[in-house]
Each structure stands twice: as C-alpha cells, then as structure tokens.
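To: structure desk
From: M.T.
Subject: fold request, one chain
Message: Could you run this one when you get a chance? Sequence is below, nothing fancy, just the single chain.
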Amino acid sequence: MTVRRKAVMHHDNASTSSDLIALSPQTLYRGLYVRVARQLGVDPSYVSRVARGERQSPEVESALGQEIGQISKKLRVARGSLNKQSKPEQRYKRLGFFVGQRRSFLRREWLRYTEADPNIRRIKLSSRRRLEPVIPIVDEALNSMKFSLKEIATKPMKAARHHGEQRRKQGYTPTTLLEEYNLIRRCIYHVAAQNVARLDPQILIDDLGQLGEVLDFQSQNAIRGFLGHA
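Reply: Done. Structure tokens follow.
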C-alpha cells in the first residue's frame, strides 16, 4: 500500500461554525509525518519517502493509514455540515475550474507574496518579468493533474524547465527558485479556501494531493533547467 500526501482547505466565513474552522488543512494535516515518525521512532523524512512510494515500510504505511482515516472521519463531518448549508440542486466543481477562473487573483496574490519575501524581493525585476512564468506553470500543473504519478514523472514539464532557465539568468538562487513554487501552492490553496463551499471535500483532498505531487515534479524540472541539466 502506498499512501499519498493529501491536503484540504476550508474557508472561514460568517456561515462556518467553529467546529468546521478547526477542520482546516493546517489543523488536520500539519505535522502528519512528524506524528507518525514520533509514534514509530523514525525520521520524518523517512515517513515522507514511504508516503511517496519511494520506500516500503508496512509499519509506516499502517500508521499513515490510521492517521488519514481519522482525518477523513472529521472531514466527513465537515462535508455533511457543508451539504446541509448548500442548496439541494448544487453541483460541485473541481479545483481546476476555480483556479482557471481566478487567474487575475493568482497573479496579484503571487506578486504580493513575492514582494513580502525579502530573499526574492532583493532580486530586482519588474512586476511583468517576475510574473511572466507563473500562469504557464499553473496551466502546466493543471494539465498534468489528470495523469497518474508514473505518467507525470515522464512529462517534460517545459514551463517549469523554462522557469528555471529564466531565473538563473535573472540572478535567482536555487532556494529562491524553489520558494516560488511554495508561493504558487499557497495561492492555489487560497483559491480553494475561497470556494470550499462549492467543492466536494473528498475530491478536493485528491485534487490538492495531486497538485502537490505535480508541483514537486515541476520544481525538480525547474532546478534541472536552472543547473543546465538535460
């Protein structure tokens, strides 16, 4: 059994009860690998590799399965509460739909995050040049989410590789390059939080988990482009 990392976002608004607020991804999934590592007396990085399928450990997989099972129970409660608040005829959409609808928001939010990051901010670029690779990376990520992890690993990730090549010429470091992927992830999570009432919670977990895997592959390809590796 291979356990994949998954995450879920929950929007805090006037109609959300305090119980549902407590079911945010920060509350439910933060420290998942650390908790399992402490239970078993192993390193969290080893737990992460098992979760990705890079290592095999029945004990770790079982512990992860139990933790995720407990989280899923809480999410089902949240889902039931959200369904009660929703109109019976409501139809849920996938995360990619809302991300595609919020391109302007993604640009603004991502630029705001980069301007607040001292390491990125010290690299002097115009807003246009700083924003240039963002939407192609997001589009590439959304298009790649429909594939399996094995298939994703074979994709060229051209937008990500071009991003790495660009940032090397613009004076970025590998660390600041990778941080941009964290900011893209944060912006997309924000979109999910804003639209959680119109997203099926269980499917949202899968979408965010798949998105995280794709962004990881993209960041790897960006580093290869940055270093000039074929």
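Reply (cont.): Residues 1-23 have pLDDT under 50 and may be disordered. Let me know if you need anything else for the meeting.
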